[in-house]
Design brief:
5 strands; alpha+beta; elongated
């Protein structure tokens, strides 16, 4: 078995073993830039229909688009973004 050289170490350090998480916004391709997810969001239950809370990944432009408001996909109740969504974790840069 060989020994690790400086060149081997440089090559290994240059590799990116993490992969970009895709944006999971329902209309991602139609409504905003095609970019990887930046945030993990938690969706709170809808106050009208009670649709269960979920988590999903969203890109920065999708998050910015949602500042205009969000709609429950189950009952179409409109709400302010910050009333229904919370950033759980920042995953992008």
């Amino acid at each position: 078995m060989g020994t690790l050289t400086d060149t081997d170490t440089e090559v290994l350090e240059a590799l990116d073993f993490s992969h970009a998480q895709p944006c999971e916004h329902v209309y991602h391709e139609l409504t905003h830039k095609d970019e990887p997810a930046m945030f993990l969001l938690a969706k709170k239950p809808c106050p009208v229909c009670g649709k269960a809370a979920t988590q999903y990944f969203i890109c920065l432009s999708g998050w910015e688009l949602m500042a205009k408001g969000v709609v429950c996909l189950n009952c179409n109740t409109a709400a302010e973004r910050d009333d229904r969504l919370t950033i759980v974790r920042v995953i992008g840069q």
